[in-house]
């Protein structure tokens, strides 16, 4: 059982910040790792990236976007409520070292897990450029947090309501043409990470991506999260979630993420019928 | 009773009532229904009460078999379970899933001339009787020794080790990676073969004797073995062999291809058969192929049928004789309508729009015996053919999970990643750290893991009482 200590709506109406009491996990967790949660006895196990770690307070933070049944149900959990199961820290931490100039690329709420990575990279003395993309300015999250840590912040919006009109790769390409980088790290939807990797490939810049496969146990036991990297089958939960974006077979990943699309839709609709809820409360 | 009848009685074992195959293939209720007291007493009367009972030698944990059978024959069921419990912590489990035909029953003297005594069914009867009547299970705990022992993994090896050590007065803490205790007993073996309430009952007994179980604790991530050894006097590693093997053939990452571990975990632990009341989905195939011939393959194929597959088949590269699954499981699968594509090996999985469409296979023939002593399968050139399916489940075994070994200093492993131990004691290369079960031997049976847990418990006790 893990108690919710803080909940904030960070992007209207569907993105929530949770600070959760998890002293043992916070003691070991490192940026780039994730936890698996199960809300209640009938719940599924879903992986969530760590958006912050505070070992002194014994807390971890998660950013949850209410998109499906479990995430929407979680959005109805409030301060004082308990999450039945929380397991972690899982996966390999993001490799942090002195790289020099680092470009971080975050799409949508993928910016959140980049935040602790940015802080660790900064502590190691890296120069950090962050490119944050969203469909429109109202959908951006973590802008102030990132501004406080990063040396340069580039914002892109599909509709041009803020920053550069376009997608993250528009800004990334410009940035790489103007001044290079030693490494690029991207977190976001698989399609975005795919195109980030395609953008950096001609520049020959190492690109680390964080893969968000479907998982159950998160310990290598089920193999459901398997991805093809460099022609070899790897497990995102134990070998990853970080991999070389130039080696990932993106089409397989994107396809596998759709495995339960119909079942999930049905389950969500059924749940919504049973629950009257206001997501933005 | 006429002489003929009595002879008949001794030659033929008392059959165990079973759910009708046509009915059971669409439910998850237990297949075998268990003996009534009358049936059990009748079957127990068949035991010859050998002076030198070989059945005990066949049991990895040396249950006093003739003694408990005698108690059943006399109608003293409480005494029977008491006798079993001196040796076994999980009789209701073992009575159901042990391969008795290769162990105790294989050695049964009666078995030389007739059918061996149904030792497994009798064990199950005694355990179920005790569970229903809540007796024979009380364990007296001696004075605490003050020693603390950590157990990693709550599968059969860990549970047995915990039980043996707890009843010697040691303080036991079990660390379990998943949200429920039981390991393969809860995520792997299906409800229709081992109801989860039975596992929960046995685990509850552990709680009652003071064993603490910490769930959601992945050792190697949340806490390391080295940290555990700072807090505990000794440690037993029974993490199992949880890393599914794939074949490395084309199409294995298509949607609709599962490892047996994933398929069974979704169905059993996560109760995907009750989706959407439970949130975890599972792909219900119309035509399902399970690759492999072991018990896990049988569990997977029978689960697929019960989930609603119209057709479910086993694809196995050798013949029925070489199948590692228990005869009873193969028989049950056959009765339920599972098809068997024997001497057949998959070459690639063919997809369409990212989903499995068919498996291309090649026919095999058996050549000379290989290292395992089984005749090795050889592909017949030009015999390729396609089997249309929409779900493929790969059940060809598991390997060593790397999380714990990778995070532990100086723990000696063999070239496959399994932990190296002293066979008699379970002692690893590190003082105070013992291991047993599938993480030492590779995929084996529940009872062998229990045997290893028991052996290690004895060695841990001796180690702790002499330091």
Describe the structure.
The complex is a heterodimer of chains A (281) and B (467). Chain A is of the alpha/beta class. Chain A has eight helices and 16 strands. Chain A has helices at residues 23-28, 69-74, 111-123, 143-149, 168-178, 190-200, 250-257, 261-274, and strands at 2-11, 15-21, 34-38, 46-54, 59-65, 82-83, 85-90, 101-107, 127-134, 152-157, 164-165, 183-187, 207-210, 226-229, 232-235, 242-244. In chain A, the strands form three sheets. Chain A has a seven-stranded antiparallel sheet. In chain A, helix 5 (168-178) packs parallel to helix 6. The longest helix of chain A has 14 residues, at 261-274. Chain B folds into three domains: 19-131, Alpha-helical ferredoxin (Fumarate Reductase Iron-sulfur Protein, Chain B, domain 2); 146-240 and 399-463, 3-Layer(bba) Sandwich (FAD/NAD(P)-binding domain); 243-392, FAD/NAD(P)-binding domain (3-Layer(bba) Sandwich). Chain B is 35% helix and 16% strand. Chain B contains 19 helices and 14 strands. In chain B, strands 3-2-1-4-14 form a five-stranded parallel sheet, sandwiched between helices. The radius of gyration of chain B is 23 Å and the shape is globular. Classes of the chains: A alpha/beta (281), B alpha/beta (467). The interface between A and B is large, with 44 and 41 residues. Chain B: Residues 1-23 are annotated as: Disordered.
């Amino acid at each position: 059982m893990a108690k919710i200590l803080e909940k904030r709506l960070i992007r209207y109406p569907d993105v929530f910040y949770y600070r959760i009491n998890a002293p043992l996990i916070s003691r070991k967790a490192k940026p780039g790792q994730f936890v698996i949660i199960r809300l209640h006895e009938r719940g599924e196990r879903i992986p969530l990236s760590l958006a912050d770690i505070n070992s002194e307070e014994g807390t971890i933070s998660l950013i949850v976007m209410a998109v499906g049944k479990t995430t929407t149900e979680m959005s109805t959990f409030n301060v004082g409520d308990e999450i039945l199961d929380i397991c972690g820290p899982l996966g390999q931490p993001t490799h942090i070292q002195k790289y020099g100039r680092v470009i971080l690329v975050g799409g949508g709420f993928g910016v959140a897990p980049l935040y602790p990575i940015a802080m660790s990279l900064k502590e190691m003395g890296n120069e950090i450029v962050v490119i944050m993309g969203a469909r429109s300015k109202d959908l951006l999250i973590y802008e102030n947090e990132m501004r406080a840590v990063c040396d340069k912040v580039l914002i892109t919006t599909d509709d041009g309501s803020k920053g550069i009109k376009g997608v993250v790769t528009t800004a990334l390409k410009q940035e790489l043409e103007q001044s290079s980088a030693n490494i690029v790290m991207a977190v976001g939807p698989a399609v975005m990470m795919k195109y980030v990797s395609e953008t950096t490939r001609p520049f020959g810049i190492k690109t680390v991506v964080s893969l968000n496969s479907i998982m159950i146990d998160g310990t290598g036991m089920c193999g459901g999260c398997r991805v093809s990297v460099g022609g070899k089958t790897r497990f995102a939960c134990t070998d990853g979630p970080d991999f070389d974006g130039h080696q990932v077979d993106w089409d397989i990943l994107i396809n596998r993420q759709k495995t339960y699309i119909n079942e999930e839709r049905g389950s969500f609709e059924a749940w919504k019928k049973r629950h009257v809820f206001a997501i933005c409360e | 009773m006429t002489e003929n009848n009595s002879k008949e009685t001794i030659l033929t074992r008392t059959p165990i009532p079973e759910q009708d195959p046509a009915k059971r293939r669409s439910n998850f209720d237990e297949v075998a229904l268990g003996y009534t007291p009358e049936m059990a007493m009748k079957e127990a009367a068949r035991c010859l009460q050998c002076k030198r009972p070989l059945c005990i030698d066949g049991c990895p944990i040396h249950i006093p078999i003739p003694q408990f059978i005698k108690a059943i024959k006399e109608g003293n069921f409480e005494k029977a379970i008491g006798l079993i419990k001196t040796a076994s912590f999980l009789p209701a489990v073992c009575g159901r899933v042990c391969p008795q035909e290769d162990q105790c029953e294989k050695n049964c003297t009666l078995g030389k001339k007739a059918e061996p005594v149904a030792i497994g069914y009798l064990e199950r009867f005694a355990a179920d009787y005790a569970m229903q009547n809540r007796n024979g299970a009380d364990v007296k705990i001696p004075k605490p020794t003050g020693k603390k022992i950590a157990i990693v993994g709550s599968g059969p090896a860990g549970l047995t080790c915990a039980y043996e050590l707890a009843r010697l007065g040691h303080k036991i803490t079990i660390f379990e990676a998943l949200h429920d205790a039981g390991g393969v007993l809860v995520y792997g073996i299906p409800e229709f073969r081992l109801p989860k309430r039975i596992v929960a009952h046995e685990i509850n007994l552990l709680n009652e004797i003071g064993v603490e179980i910490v769930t959601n604790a992945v050792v190697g991530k949340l806490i390391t073995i080295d940290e555990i050894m700072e807090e505990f006097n000794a440690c037993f590693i029974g993490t199992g062999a949880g890393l599914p093997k794939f074949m490395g053939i084309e199409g294995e990452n298509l949607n609709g291809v599962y490892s047996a571990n994933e398929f069974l975990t979704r169905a059993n632990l996560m109760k995907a058969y009750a989706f959407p009341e439970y949130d975890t989905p599972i792909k219900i195939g119309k035509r399902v192929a399970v690759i492999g011939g072991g018990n896990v393959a049988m569990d997977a194929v029978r689960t697929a049928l019960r989930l609603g597959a119209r057709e479910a088949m086993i694809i196995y590269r050798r013949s029925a004789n070489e199948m590692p699954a228990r005869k009873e499981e193969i028989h049950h699968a056959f009765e339920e309508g599972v098809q068997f594509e024997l001497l057949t090996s998959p070459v690639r999985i063919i997809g369409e729009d990212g989903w499995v469409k068919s498996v291309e296979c090649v026919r095999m023939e058996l050549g000379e015996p290989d290292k395992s002593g089984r005749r090795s399968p050889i592909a017949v050139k030009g015999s390729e053919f396609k089997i249309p399916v929409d779900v493929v489940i790969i059940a060809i075994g598991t390997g060593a999970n790397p999380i714990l070994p990778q995070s532990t200093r100086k723990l000696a492993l063999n070239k496959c990643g399994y932990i190296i131990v002293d066979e008699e004691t379970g002692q690893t290369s590190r003082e105070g750290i013992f291991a047993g079960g599938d993480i030492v031997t590779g995929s084996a049976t529940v009872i062998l893991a229990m045997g290893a847990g028991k052996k290690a418990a004895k060695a841990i006790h001796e180690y702790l009482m002499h330091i």
